[in-house]
C-alpha cells in the first residue's frame, strides 16, 4: 500500500509539473509507468489525475473566461476571442475522433517512439526559440482567426505521445509571429476545451474497462496533480517572458536520451 501510494504521488507530481509545459506530460507519464511497472486498467488513474490538472487550470482562468462570456453578449471583440479558441479546438476534435483507437492502442504502447519524440521536440524548441520571427501579435485574445486555426492544426501533432500539446501549439504560434508569453497563454486557453473533451472522450471510450478499485491511489494522484499544476501555471508565464523555452528543450532532450539508454539495456 505504501509503495503504490508513493508511486501515485510521484505520477501525480509528474502530471501536474509537465501538463502545461512544452515537455509532454503524456510522454513522461507513459515512460514513468513503463519503468515503474505501473499499470492502470483502462488507464483510469492517468485519466483521472489529468482532471486534477484541468481543474487547476480552470481555477486560474475562471475569472477571465467568465468575463469573456459576459462581455460576449455586447462586445464583438470578446465574441471574436471565443471564436478564435473554438476554431483552434476544432482540428483536434476531427483528428481525435478519427484516430483515437490507433493512438491509444499503438502509439501509446511504444516507449521508444515516445523517447525519440521527446528528443526531436526538444531540438525543435531550441531552434525555434532562437530563430522565431519577430513577434507581431502580443495579445493571446486577439489573434487573427486564420492563425488560430493554424495553431489548432499544429496541436494535432500532439496526438503522437512525446510531442507535447503545449509544445506543438507554442511552436506553431511562435512561427506565426506570436510573442512568447502570448503563445503560452493561448496554448493554456486552448487546453481548456481540448483537455476537457479528450478526458471526457477517454472516459466514454473506456467506460467498460474503468477500474476505480484503487481509489486511494487515484485520490492521491489527483490531489498532487491539482496542487502542482496550480503552482506551475502561475509560474510558467512569467518564466517564459523572461527566459524563453530553451530550458524545456534541454529538459526534453535529457529525459528522452535517458529513456532511450534505459530501453537499450532492456529496462
Automatic annotation (TrEMBL):
Query: Which reaction is this enzyme known to catalyze?
Result: di-trans,octa-cis-undecaprenyl diphosphate + H2O = di-trans,octa-cis-undecaprenyl phosphate + phosphate + H(+)
Membrane-traversing stretches: 48-70, 82-99, 111-128, 183-204, 216-237, 249-266
The molecular function GO annotations come to:
undecaprenyl-diphosphatase activity
Q: Which UniProt keywords apply?
A: Antibiotic resistance, Cell membrane, Cell shape, Cell wall biogenesis/degradation, Hydrolase, Membrane, Peptidoglycan synthesis, Transmembrane, Transmembrane helix
Q: Where in the cell is it found?
A: Cell membrane
- Identify which top EC class this enzyme belongs to: hydrolase
Q: What is its EC number?
A: 3.6.1.27
Q: Which InterPro entries match?
A: UppP
PANTHER family, per the entry: UNDECAPRENYL-DIPHOSPHATASE (PTHR30622:SF3)
Entry similarity comment? Belongs to the UppP family.
Which HAMAP family does the entry link to?
Undec_diphosphatase
Q: What else is known?
A: Bacitracin is thought to be involved in the inhibition of peptidoglycan synthesis by sequestering undecaprenyl diphosphate, thereby reducing the pool of lipid carrier available.
Supply the name of the protein. Undecaprenyl-diphosphatase
Its lineage reads: Bacteria, Pseudomonadati, Pseudomonadota, Alphaproteobacteria, Rhodobacterales
Amino acid at each position: 500500500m505504501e509503495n503504490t501510494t508513493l508511486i501515485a504521488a510521484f505520477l501525480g507530481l509528474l502530471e501536474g509539473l509537465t501538463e502545461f509545459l512544452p515537455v509532454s506530460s503524456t510522454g513522461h507519464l507513459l515512460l514513468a509507468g513503463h519503468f515503474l511497472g505501473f499499470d492502470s486498467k483502462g488507464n483510469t488513474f492517468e485519466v483521472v489525475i489529468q482532471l486534477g490538472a484541468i481543474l487547476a487550470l480552470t481555477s486560474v482562468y475562471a475569472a477571465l473566461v467568465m468575463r469573456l462570456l459576459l462581455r460576449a453578449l455586447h462586445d464583438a471583440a470578446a465574441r471574436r476571442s471565443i471564436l478564435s479558441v473554438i476554431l483552434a479546438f476544432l482540428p483536434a476534435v476531427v483528428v481525435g475522433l478519427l484516430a483515437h483507437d490507433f493512438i491509444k492502442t499503438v502509439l501509446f504502447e511504444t516507449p521508444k517512439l515516445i523517447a525519440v519524440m521527446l528528443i526531436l521536440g526538444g531540438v525543435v524548441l531550441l531552434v525555434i526559440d532562437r530563430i522565431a520571427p519577430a513577434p507581431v501579435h502580443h495579445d493571446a485574445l486577439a489573434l487573427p482567426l486564420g492563425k488560430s486555426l493554424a495553431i489548432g492544426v499544429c496541436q494535432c501533432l500532439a496526438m503522437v505521445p512525446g510531442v507535447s500539446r503545449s509544445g506543438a501549439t507554442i511552436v506553431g504560434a511562435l512561427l506565426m509571429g506570436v510573442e512568447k508569453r502570448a503563445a503560452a497563454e493561448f496554448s493554456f486557453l486552448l487546453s481548456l476545451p481540448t483537455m476537457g473533451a479528450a478526458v471526457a472522450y477517454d472516459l466514454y471510450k473506456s467506460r467498460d474497462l474503468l477500474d476505480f478499485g484503487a481509489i486511494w491511489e487515484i485520490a492521491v494522484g489527483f490531489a498532487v496533480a491539482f496542487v502542482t499544476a496550480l503552482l506551475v501555471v502561475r509560474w510558467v508565464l512569467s518564466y517564459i517572458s523572461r527566459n524563453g523555452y530553451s530550458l524545456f528543450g534541454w529538459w526534453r532532450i535529457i529525459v528522452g536520451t535517458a529513456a532511450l539508454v534505459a530501453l537499450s539495456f532492456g529496462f
